[in-house]
Amino acid sequence: MRKPTNAMHKPATTPKRARDTFTQATQTDNRVHLTVRISPELRHRLNIYAAENQRTVTDIVTQAVTDLLDS
């Protein structure tokens, strides 16, 4: 049997501290991309809330962070 190449193997992930990643948005959008790690349960709850309230996850998170920082 042939050994798989590196392209076929994904390196094992190691637990890392949560990091926020900022990248530049498109020229038409003045927002930046923010990546955060959350639990699968929180993601599920957030998706349900978004569907029930007919809002996007981005809008909900943006509003929550804004409210937190403004308080």
From TrEMBL:
One Gene Ontology biological process: regulation of DNA-templated transcription
Chain spans, region Disordered: 1-26
Signal peptide positions on this chain: none
InterPro entries (UniProt xref): Arc_rbn_hlx_hlx, RHH_dom-containing, Ribbon_hlx_hlx
Protein's recorded name: Uncharacterized protein
